Amino acid sequence: MMREFDLVVFDWDGTLMDSTGHIVHAIQQACRDLDLPVPGREAASHVIGLRLDDALLRACPAAGARLPELTAAFRRRYQAGLERVTLFEHAQSTLQAIRAAGIFVAIATGSSRAGLDRALQAAGIQDLFDATRTVDECHSKPHPDMLFQLTDYFGVACGRALMVGDTSHDLLMARNAGSVGVGISHGAHADKELLRCQPAALVHSLPELSSWLLPRLG
Is the pLDDT of residue 1 over 80? Predict the structure, then answer.
């Protein structure tokens, strides 16, 4: 099989990092701290992947002018217990296998630059990525800016880039950029929501992603 992709871009939270439950809990606890309406799990998980202020306001519209307070409360709750959040099983071996095929590997995330850099260092996998983009440098998903910047950086056509993510925000970004999207169902959004975005594939684990992807890397 001929190589189909020259660049594979991963989302971070809920795709490589098993952090969805922790983020949902932090959103809910931050709302409780301020006596604001507490979103349910589905509403809180749906906003994961967006720029933080947009995400919190969507999860809790009643925050209004108190958004800065809610953001600060979320950051406190998010940092508490963060050391217990780990990579999904097989994340490192999946990345290593893609790199061994001679493919560029990158991250496009709604996290801040400081947050992503800390997480990569803590996980010890920063050397497995050729480039990363966050909302501190780019428009938030589903705007295609992150993929445009990454494909331009590597000199890769958008149609030769694959975006792997656990949310519709990731898959819509891929569509908006003219790239290929693959959904992975172990994160924030339900299968039916991912399938509505018409991904090239929907996988349920990183080993399943490898089985689908590696034959397409030539």
Answer: no
Token pair 């990183």 in the structure block, residue: 206
Q: Quote the tokens at residue 104.
A: 């560029």
Q: Catalytic residue positions?
A: 11, 13
Distance CA 183, CA 205 (A): 10
For residue range 61-71, list pLDDT tens digits in order: 999 999 999 99
Overall domain count for the chain: 2
Alpha-carbon gap, residue 52 to 135, rounded angstroms:
9
Question: Which domain range does residue 32 map to?
Answer: 19-83
177 and 73 part of one domain: no
In contact, 48 and 23? CB cutoff 8 Å = yes
Kindly report the CATH number assigned to the domain that includes residue 204: 3.40.50.1000
Section 141-163 average pLDDT: 98
Q: Which two tokens stand for residue 100?
A: 């061994």
Token digits of residue 163: 């975006």
